[in-house]
């Protein structure tokens, strides 16, 4: 049962319990006043009081349930507004990072042999600035929406899809190691390369570059992002419209990989290369 339905059911049962308690109080009051229920007046008073009580309580209960459902709908909309990217409707940067950190933290509570492999993918649209400059921001928005829709449709429901900013997206593939991640990355790349945007007489085919890191042990999200982003840089530098993934092993290998990741100027790779 869905948690929200379970909570609503419990609330309704609580209201029914309060109503039953009030009926019990009425019964005791009538019994005390008439000294029992032998007299017709006692029975008539009891029936009248109970009917009035139930007739008053039922509308109040229905009103309370309706208000709660309306508030839950409003809260759900506010939550979506706070966690979703307004244009593409995937997770925004903050929500994606928090969700990914939570998923990674849960890995730490498992035994070493039970830890599932995961893969973090960073996806960046190729030549996006050129699309914006030549065809306008409306076409750029169309491209971002088309890419996001393709990403969302191409992964499982429990995988995380987010927009990190600009033309950069991210996916956390749960229970997917290096081989699975590599297959998914290529499938995404090929699917997006089938997309075209722009006016009818100036259609442009889209492409993306992907960088990924597969891991089995809990690693800080920022470190994983740095490694995946370094692989994205390599994919961009070797021609774009391709994917580059690596796999983390031990903690020492993680430290070595972080030490080799681009720094300084190279850390600004998305902005510099997107402008080319």
UniProtKB/TrEMBL annotation:
Organism superkingdom: Bacteria
One cellular-component annotation, GO: plasma membrane
Pfam families given in the database record: GGDEF
MF GO annotations: diguanylate cyclase activity
InterPro entries reported in the protein's UniProt record: Diguanylate_Cyclase (IPR050469), GGDEF_dom (IPR000160), Nucleotide_cyclase (IPR029787), Rev_trsase/Diguanyl_cyclase (IPR043128)
GO biological process terms on file: cell adhesion involved in single-species biofilm formation; negative regulation of bacterial-type flagellum-dependent cell motility
Keywords from the named record: Membrane, Transmembrane, Transmembrane helix
Catalytically driven reaction(s): 2 GTP = 3',3'-c-di-GMP + 2 diphosphate
Transmembrane regions listed in the UniProt entry: 12-33, 45-66
GGDEF domain sequence ranges: 116-248
Documented EC number(s): 2.7.7.65
Database matches in NCBIfam families: GGDEF
Protein name: diguanylate cyclase
UniProt source species: Aureimonas pseudogalii
């Amino acid at each position: 049962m869905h948690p929200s339905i379970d909570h609503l059911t419990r609330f309704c049962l609580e209201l029914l319990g309060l109503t039953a308690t009030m009926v019990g109080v009425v019964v005791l009051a009538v019994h005390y006043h008439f000294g029992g229920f032998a007299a017709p007046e006692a029975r008539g008073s009891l029936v009248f009081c109970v009917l009035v009580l139930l007739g008053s309580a039922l509308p109040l209960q229905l009103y309370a349930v309706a208000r709660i459902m309306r508030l839950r709908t409003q809260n759900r909309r506010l939550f979506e507004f706070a966690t979703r990217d307004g244009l593409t409707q995937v997770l925004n940067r903050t929500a994606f990072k928090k969700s990914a950190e939570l998923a990674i933290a849960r890995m730490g509570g498992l035994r070493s042999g039970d830890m599932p492999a995961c893969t973090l993918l960073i996806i960046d649209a190729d030549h996006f600035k050129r699309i914006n400059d030549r065809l306008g921001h409306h076409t750029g928005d169309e491209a971002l929406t088309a890419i996001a829709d393709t990403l969302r449709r191409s992964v499982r429901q429990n995988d995380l899809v987010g927009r990190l900013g600009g033309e950069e997206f991210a996916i956390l593939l749960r229970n997917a190691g290096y081989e699975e991640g590599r297959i998914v990355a290529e499938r995404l790349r090929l699917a997006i390369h089938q997309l075209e945007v722009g006016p009818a007489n100036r259609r442009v085919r889209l492409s993306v570059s992907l960088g990924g890191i597969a891991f089995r042990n809990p690693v800080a999200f920022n470190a994983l992002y740095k490694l995946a982003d370094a692989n994205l840089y390599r994919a961009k530098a070797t021609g774009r419209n391709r994917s580059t993934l690596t796999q983390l092993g031990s903690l020492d290998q993680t430290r070595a990989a972080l030490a080799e990741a681009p720094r300084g100027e190279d850390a600004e790779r998305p902005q510099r290369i997107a402008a080319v």
